[in-house]
Amino acid sequence: MSKIVKGMFDVMPKDEENWRQVQWWRFVESTARTVAERFRFQEVRTPLVEYTELFKRGVGDTTDIVEKEMYTFTDRAGRSISLRPEGTAGIVRSFVGHKVYAQPQPTKWFYMGPMYRYERQQVGRYRQFHQLGVEAFGSFDPALDAEVIALGMQFFEELGLKGVQVEINNVGDPESRARYFEALIAYFEPYKEELAEDAQNRLYRNPMRILDSKDPHTHEIAMGAPSILEYLSEDSRANLEAVKQYLDILGVNYVQNDRLVRGLDYYTQTAFEYMVDIPGAQASTIGGGGRYNGLVQEVGGPDMPGVGFGVGLERVLLALEEQKVVVPEPSRLDCYMITFDQATKRKSMELLAELRRAGLSAERDYLDRKMKAQMKVADREQARFVAILGEDELAQNTIQVKNMETGTQEAVPFDQLVTYIQTEKGR
Ligand code: HAM
Prior knowledge:
The protein has 15 helices and 16 strands. It is an alpha+beta fold. The chain folds into two domains: 18-173 and 233-322, Bira Bifunctional Protein, Domain 2 (BirA Bifunctional Protein, domain 2, 2-Layer Sandwich); 335-425, Rossmann fold, CATH 3.40.50.800. The strands form three sheets. An eight-stranded mixed β-sheet has the order 1-5-6-11-10-9-7-8. Strand 12 (335-338), helix 12 (342-357) and strand 13 (362-364) form a beta-alpha-beta unit. Helix 1 (22-38) packs antiparallel against helix 5 (142-159) and helix 5 packs parallel to helix 9 (234-249). Bound molecules: histidyl-adenosine monophosphate. The site of histidyl-adenosine monophosphate has 26 residues, from strand 6, strand 10, strand 11 and helix 11.
């Protein structure tokens, strides 16, 4: 009964495995919010579930995600619903559903939360994982592509993560891609029998995906395949050059990789990935994204472009742990109150309430521990102040307050306790 669902994990208040500690998550999440908001992206929250059709249409029915990885179920009214395997489709659904396209553009949104894919569990690959995503709608300006890429880099930088590489490519507009598909099919056809099974299946449906096949022999064959660069329209080519120039202005180091393909069907033009070394993990991609200029229309909106990325927070955390990045400490306990009998416990409740209302954190014993054991708890909690409320103190309306850093101890009248701790704490 106490077994957790395969591929999922708890984030614990305290845990030996560092990156699964709440404190680490809060650090990553608050840094993400700060950076996204500095770029004027606003937070949006959409449901964890959507109609299955949205992902089939949006992400694409020939993708691994839709073909084999979705958690899909039928609700009580017979509708097919899926846990979101990624964020973009739901965000676009919301953008269209609320007619946000009719407002002044661009619209810049970000989101954070769990995604679900039924994948084989490995280091850095889970069935419930979390993404930071950003999506910007309504502009074709390649400067926006570059700024979206730079936002991700600034996020990594502010976390203290080193060695993140950006790879970029342009996967063309639909016309360039159609020509490229033909060229790829012509190239791979003679090798058809040698290709891995999933590559064979994709040959006529989505031959670009063969380029990132994990099968060694297929990979070798794919090395000789034509490059998309030869098939890009003037416009796509200019676009790629512009994004690169803007990345230079922004000081983002990147590598152009004409073999970079993404595992989702909605991409047009710019495609990119963030990579960093995570020992023990097969996947070194900590994030990826690009343009999806046809998706808003596909989901029922007007012809309006979009660009964004998704970053896997587990992978970011694993990399932070690997690089021994120091995560800010949780805030300390301000006051631990030591009590003895019923009467002092009763009074302590009043005093604790006052401290908490004044914005201080305060704690006491609930297990009738002896004084010495209570002191131990105060120590373990690293309390800044220990306040001792004995019978004598109670009779005199005072409490003994010990500053655990300086070691000084004073009797403080009840009605001055809050001010005393606030003042002492500020010293
Ligand atoms: P994606 O490449 O499928 O793109 O996922 C983005 C990132 O999520 C990956 O680079 C990886 O770090 C993380 N990720 C994916 N699957 C798992 C998993 N099973 N376990 C742990 N981490 C995982 C998208 O999802 C697009 N929606 C990104 C995007 C937004 N493109 C435009 N806008």
